[in-house]
Specification:
The chain has 857 residues and is mainly beta. It folds into 6 domains: 151 residues, Spermadhesin, CUB domain (Jelly Rolls); 127 residues, Sandwich (Jelly Rolls), CATH 2.60.120.290; 162 residues, Sandwich (Jelly Rolls); 130 residues, Sandwich (Jelly Rolls); 111 residues, Spermadhesin, CUB domain (Jelly Rolls), CATH 2.60.120.290; 45 residues, Low-density Lipoprotein Receptor. Helices cover 10% and strands 38% of the residues. A 6-stranded mixed beta sheet has the order 12-13-15-21-17-18, with no helix packed on it. Strands 23-24-26-32-28-29 form a 6-stranded mixed beta sheet. A 6-stranded mixed beta sheet has the order 34-35-37-42-39-40, with no helix packed on it. Pfam families: CUB.
Length: 857
């Protein structure tokens, strides 16, 4: 080691207690050396300056009574990194009460190495010690670290009366100081670990407390601050409600107490690697803040939102009514005040409400000394210095709740609004929530009373159904009169509530009809209950006195899907009723309706089985057209179209019935055991619905009397368009005896149906109903023999014709073959006669320049 190093490290430990401020460094020039930059410069320029190995240097800073030590590092360069301090490091002890301390038992405030210097350090008492450790020889050209120290007053950390001699637990009383600042124990230095501080702010009765944090830096250990935290209680003890629990980096944190006392707890656990500095808090006691007792007015369900000056939450207690008002109403409202009113209806599986806001009065003045009247439209209103804002949409409500400085409202109101103005409302929420905000930057007056605003809030059950509401607020009854629209189960597409009952009135005008078709239909389908939840569709008839008579058209349950439904002829009003039980719920349904011009006739008088019109069908009279026939869908077997509406009425003679059989059917949809699902196209036979492509579920249908009504209706918007259907009908007579009444009828053996004798042996089974009965096709022996003979003769004639044809072709082939052989023999004879004589000598060869003349036969 050279001379300079020897001089410097002859004294390694040092106590700083003489001066209130100064510098420190490692290595430290001994005080015995002259204070000359030449010595320091000589060390900096010495390339052979080597620190001894395994050294420990202790710097002890001792401030006077009522003082603390503050360290600031300007330069720091040690071996290692913050993750691995093994070779060189600095330990800092800032929680010592005496300079005589045990390194092993004292609380270590932090260990540092590498090139990142410690943040500002302030001692908890008047002692601070730094210890340098080194385990190897290291050549250095500059200082390992250097910095500044100062002894500062600890008065700003003693902000009130101490509690139980704790280092940072105080009572701050407004009788001593009504506003001030509160610092965490070692702010702005890193705060101690495993530490607890308590601050009780106590004002006079009638006062409230406002606190804000200009600077807040507490270790963030997770969303709920499980490690270091600042917890603020709205009262004198920790049993009171928590206003807020804070950690991490915070900005613009501002809180208000409800009453005149506030408790703050500061808890720390393990040391953070980032050296968080703690916090500084500004507090104020005053009676100028909004009087919450007056603002709440003792209403049940209206509560203060903790931590705010005057924000309220209005909560429904199911179909309840509440009132809100501006601070000090009906007197002048305070200046620079913003109050937000969060209005919440019920929202749950069983209950969903909407809020209806109606102002009793608004006088929020923006013009001094002038009697002001608000414009007729909210779009024309500007409110620079005071306003009442109403936020209904989700985005605007979020803006209001997140930042009052950038609030956006659906309606902004101010000035003195007349009592009969539509600007007073009602305003209806889109969901269960609505927000109202009152704000003022100054308080001009028009010399009239009252000032501010007062409003009534009514919570009504929200069924989530568009339409004109009828009945009481919690009664699910709606009327629809538009030419087109939709209706749905309560709260669709969410699950409908249990024990629900809703009525939908669809009302047209005379000479109109109503078409209903469903986009979705999903009711609860409970295994042990049959049709627990259901939808019923009625035709509504009215007599000359207006008295109504409901006639059920259809009932649909879980597992089914209704096909399109049209009101009966002459009916221009329909009623749909939905009912759910108390066990299970599902998504429910959504249906559309059309009110349009009614058809001219119930069933077209003229039957047209080839019609392609959207209005088709006809009356079929068996006494005119015969005892059997068929009906088909429009364009069959080509695809049917959307918006088809066809009706057939088949009439049999008196005391006869109609038997209907399905020959072909391709109609989109399914017929399942759980229910029939004919969403886009449906065949109805006497009210029963049919669709799908499977024929086996559909048995022959026997009418109840001498008429049978058939309809075919398709969705007016879209269909897949399959082949359609082909039905056969037969006039029959049901008898109990063993014979038919007249000889022109044939008695079916098993079904006991009497059919026309002309239908026997016609190739169609006309007897089958309820049982397998094809006896009308089993007693046809003579006709069968005759038919067999006809077939036999036809077969023999065909065989003879085929034999003759074969013989003819054989004869032609033989003649052709003989001519071919004769022609071949004649050709061979001619070639032998023309064969030239072959000489024994070779032919003369042509020489160069000669020409050879070739001859061809």
């Amino acid at each position: 080691m050279n001379l300079i190093s020897t001089i410097i490290f002859s004294v390694c430990d040092y106590v700083f207690d003489k001066s209130s401020e100064g510098t420190f460094s490692l290595p430290l020039l001994p005080p015995s050396l002259p204070k000359s930059p030449t010595i320091e410069e000589a060390f900096n320029q010495s390339t052979n300056a080597t620190f001894p190995s395994n050294i420990q240097c202790i710097y002890t800073f001792v401030a006077g009574p009522g003082q603390r030590v503050k360290l600031e590092f300007d330069e720091f360069s040690l071996a290692g990194s913050s993750e691995n301090c093994q070779i060189e490091y600095v330990d800092i002890y800032s929680e010592l009460k005496s300079p005589d301390f045990n390194v092993l038992s004292s609380a270590l405030a932090g260990r540092y190495c590498g090139s990142i210097a410690p943040q500002i350090r302030i001692s908890l008492y008047n002692i601070l010690v730094i210890v340098f450790h080194s385990r190897s020889h290291t050549q250095k050209r500059r200082f390992l670290f250097r910095g500044r120290y100062s002894f500062i007053s600890d008065a700003k950390y003693r902000i009130g009366r101490p509690i139980d001699s704790q280092p940072c637990s105080f009572i701050v009383d407004s009788s001593i100081k009504e506003r001030g600042e509160l610092y965490s124990p070692t702010y702005p230095g890193s705060y101690p670990q495993s530490f607890f501080c308590s601050y009780l702010l106590r004002g006079r009765k009638g006062q409230r407390i406002h606190v804000q944090f200009p600077d807040f830096d507490v270790f963030f250990g997770g969303e709920h601050c499980p490690y270091d935290s600042v917890t603020i209680f709205d009262g004198p003890t920790s049993s009171y409600p928590i206003i807020k629990k804070l950690c991490g980096l915070q900005q613009k944190v501002e809180l208000y107490s409800f009453g005149h006392e506030l408790l703050i707890h500061f808890n720390t656990t393990r040391p953070a690697k980032t050296d968080p500095r703690g916090f500084v808090m500004e507090y104020k006691f005053t009676s100028d803040f909004v009087n919450l007792i007056d603002l709440l007015d003792g209403q049940e369900g209206v509560t203060h939102i903790r931590g705010t000056e005057c924000d309220l939450r209005v909560q429904s207690n199911r179909e309840t009514t509440h009132y809100i008002k501006s601070p000090n109403y009906p007197n002048a409202y305070p200046v620079n005040t913003t109050c937000t009113y969060v209005i919440d209806g019920l929202q749950g599986e069983q209950h969903l409400e909407k809020a209806i806001l109606k102002f009793e009065s608004i006088a929020v003045i923006n013009s001094e000394g002038i009697e002001s009247t608000a414009p007729s439209s909210p779009d024309d209103i500007t409110c620079p210095s005071a306003w009442v804002g109403v936020a209904i949409t989700e985005s605007n409500m979020r803006a209001v709740m997140s930042s009052t400085d950038e609030s956006v409202f659906d309606y902004t109101l101010c000035e003195r609004i007349p009592a009969n103005s539509p600007l007073l409302g009602p305003y209806i929420s889109e969901g269960p929530r609505m927000t109202v905000q009152f704000g003022s930057t100054n308080v001009p007056s028009d010399n009239l009373s009252p000032l501010g605003f007062k409003a009534q809030i009514d919570f009504k059950t929200d069924f989530g159904i568009d339409g004109e509401e009828l009945g009481h607020s919690n009664e699910c009854m709606f009327r629809f009169t538009g030419s087109a629209g939709f209706f749905n189960s309560p709260r669709y597409p969410a699950n409908y509530p249990l024990d629900a009952n809703c009525t939908y009135l669809i009302v047209g005008q005379p000479k109109q009809e109503i078409l209903i078709y469903f986009e979705q239909f999903a009711l609860a389908n409970e295994e042990n209950k049959k049709c627990a939840d259901w939808v019923k569709i009625y035709d509504v008839y009215r007599d000359s006195n207006g008295k109504e008579n409901l006639v059920l058209q259809h009932r649909y349950c879980g597992g089914s899907f209704p096909g399109p439904v049209v009101s009966s002829f002459g009916v221009h009003e329909m009623r749909v009723i939905f009912n759910s039980d108390s066990d299970e719920a599902a998504n429910g349904f959504k249906a559309f309706y059309l009110i349009r011009k009614s058809r001219a006739e119930d069933v077209p008088t003229k039957f047209d089985d080839k019609s392609s019109s959207t209005r088709c069908g006809g009356v079929i009279d068996a006494s005119i057209v015969g005892v059997t026939g068929s009906i088909t869908s429009p364009n069959f077997p080509v695809k049917y179209a959307k918006n088809e509406q066809c009706y057939w009425l088949i009439k049999a003679r008196e005391n006869h019935k109609i038997l209907l059989r399905v020959n072909e059917m391709e109609i989109e949809g399914e017929m399942k055991p759980s229910g029939i699902q004919c969403q886009n196209a449906v065949i109805r036979v006497n009210g029963e619905e049919y669709c799908g492509t499977e024929l086996h579920p559909i048995l022959p249908i026997l009418s109840n009397n001498n008429t049978l009504r058939i309809s075919f209706i398709t969705n007016p918007e879209k269909v897949n368009g399959l082949q359609g259907f082909n039905f056969t009908w037969t006039e029959v007579k049901v008898v109990e005896e063993q014979h038919c009444s007249t000889e022109d009828l044939y008695l079916c053996t098993y079904s006991k149906l009497c059919i026309s004798s002309t239908l026997r042996c016609n190739g169609d089974v006309n007897c089958g109903y309820g049982v397998v009965d094809d006896t009308d096709e089993q007693h046809c022996e003579r006709k069968e023999n005759s038919a067999d003979m006809t077939v036999l003769i036809a077969g023999m004639v065909c065989a003879l014709m085929f034999t003759a044809l074969v013989l003819f072709f054989c004869f032609v082939f033989k003649k052709k073959l003989e001519r071919k052989k004769k022609s071949k023999r004649h050709s061979e004879s001619a070639r032998r006669q023309r064969e030239p004589y072959r000489q024994q000598k070779p032919l003369h060869r042509a020489h160069a320049g000669e020409y050879v003349k070739l001859h061809f036969p």
